[in-house]
Amino acid sequence: MASTTIPTVTPAVALRGVSRTYGGGSAPVRAVDGVDLEFPRGTWTAVMGPSGSGKSTLLHCAAGLERVDAGQVLIGDTDITRATDDDLAALRRTRIGFVFQSFNLIASLTAEQNVALPLRLAGVRPAAAEIREVLAAVGLGERGRHRPRELSGGQQQRVALARAMVTRPEVLFADEPTGALDSTAARTVLDLMRAMAGRGQTIVMVTHDPAAAARADATVFLRDGRVIDRLAGGDARAVAERLVALER
């Protein structure tokens, strides 16, 4: 009988033996310590852990915002470990989206202009209708001409999410995207992220909130820069119990 070859599926993001150390001398801090981790395509993964466990550093290394000291980072088949700054900037404008807890909107630009910025930086002149469509998708179709100071925190986070969505990235990295939001605004942002995952995009989200992590397909737990545990599915209570166990 002829053998059947099962094709391997390349993960959206892969970290191979990744380490990142800060400082030197007698007391260096290894924020990420030999991490091997894959994020499958079309999935939403939450990353949790105690304060100082290396969550944000891991996210920044995976997105190419920080250089690793050892190991390898791949976005699909692309090894970004030793990519040039220009190559990384191009990658972030086309294949990667990043949402910061602090929004990082430009105060002098309107919501529409903030959303259009990644495309303009990539040399693309977006159609006004396209920008309005993305803002409408996050429930801000009528707020496109408002500047950040004229928007609530939840609205600013949705503008930041729309800015990350507009390039239709393969992977969306989100660092505490609901950390500064009330429960209603947080639910709206999480609903939008679930819709993105439903369309086949990959999401990697750092969060401290078990309820937010429970919306993801899986949760990865870090401690002292290392992957300690992983929970597939699970409600907020199950996520919280795993997190409490790590802090004991």
Automatic annotation (TrEMBL):
SMART domains noted in UniProt: AAA
Keyword Transport: yes
Keywords assigned by UniProt, alphabetized: ATP-binding, Nucleotide-binding, Transport
Transmembrane segment boundaries: none
InterPro entries in UniProt: AAA+_ATPase, ABC_transporter-like_ATP-bd, ABC_transporter-like_CS, ABC_transpr_LolD-like, MacB-like_ATP-bd, P-loop_NTPase
GO molecular function, one term: ATP binding
SUPFAM superfamilies in alphabetical order: P-loop containing nucleoside triphosphate hydrolases
Pfam families: ABC_tran
ABC transporter domain ranges (all copies): 13-247
Top-rank taxon, per record: Bacteria
Protein name (record): ABC transporter ATP-binding protein
Native species: Nonomuraea composti
